[in-house]
Write a structure and sequence with these properties.
By secondary structure, the chain is of the alpha+beta class. It contains 8 helices and 6 strands, in the order H-H-H-H-E-E-H-H-E-H-E-E-H-E. It has 2 domains: about 150 residues, no CATH class; about 80 residues, Alpha-Beta Plaits. Helix 5 packs antiparallel against helix 6 and helix 7 runs antiparallel to helix 8.
């Protein structure tokens, strides 16, 4: 009885040969996880999202390592080799929840949270040695983020936020012109910003609309005589 208790109380112990075997098995899987997670992170970084290269790389590598360790720590005689790995989904859920922001009538960060969740699954596939499946999943994630997002905007399936900046010499006339153009477009003018740089007057506001609606609104604003120039910027909080 005392011997059994002592064995249970001891921490995990691995001799040099066992550690060498684990390192040989882990190296390729962890490197591949870093590469695949980094590829997804590059796409996020290119689009200036909060979860970039380092975040996705570390999530993918961490998920791969936890998956690998789950089987190692369970041992050959244990049927429950996925006990540690099963908790990855819960941990990633908490991490993804921190990326979701709710402001006024918009919910931002859902795509970034979903991407983090998908990257964790890619890491688990790498940790399990499913290299082909992990590579295919990475390609599908990148295609979904880039191509599907592009098609959504081009086909006017998704409304997105743009920050408008109108420049001119008379702020009152510009605001009147902007309000008139917004009324014709069926949009409500809100959260208007105004500043002065020398003789230049700038009026900024945000509009949520489809790609076609943005194009029409921009054309109407450019046609207003009181507005000298109209610039548009992607909202940094837009996912």
């Amino acid at each position: 009885m005392n011997a059994n208790l002592a064995q249970i109380a001891q921490p995990y112990q691995f001799d040099s040969l066992a550690q060498l075997v684990v390192v040989n098995h882990a190296a390729n899987r962890l490197v591949l996880a870093c590469v695949l997670g980094g590829l997804v992170g590059l796409e996020r970084e290119w689009n200036r999202k909060s979860a970039g290269v380092r975040t996705n790389l570390l999530i993918c590598m961490g998920a791969a390592f936890f998956t690998l360790l789950s089987a190692v720590l369970a041992g050959d005689g244990s049927p429950n080799k996925g006990q540690v790995a099963s908790n990855i989904v819960q941990g990633i859920g908490f991490l993804g929840a921190g990326l979701i922001l709710h402001s006024k009538s918009r919910v931002n960060g859902l795509t970034s949270a979903a991407a983090v969740w998908a990257v964790a699954s890619i890491g688990m596939a790498c940790g399990a040695g499913l290299y082909g499946a992990a590579a295919v999943a990475t390609a599908l994630v990148i295609v979904s983020l880039e191509l599907v997002g592009f098609l959504e905007r081009r086909a006017n399936l998704k409304a997105y936020s743009l920050m408008y900046e109108a420049r001119g010499s008379d702020a009152t006339l510009m605001l009147s012109s902007i309000l008139d153009a917004m009324d014709k477009a069926g949009q409500r003018l809100a959260d208007v910003g105004h500043d002065v740089i020398g003789k230049l007057q700038r009026v900024s506001f945000t509009v949520i609309a489809s790609n076609r609606q943005h194009q029409r609104l921009c054309a109407k604003l450019e046609a207003e005589p009181a507005i000298d120039k109209v610039l548009t910027f992607r909202d940094p909080e837009e996912d």
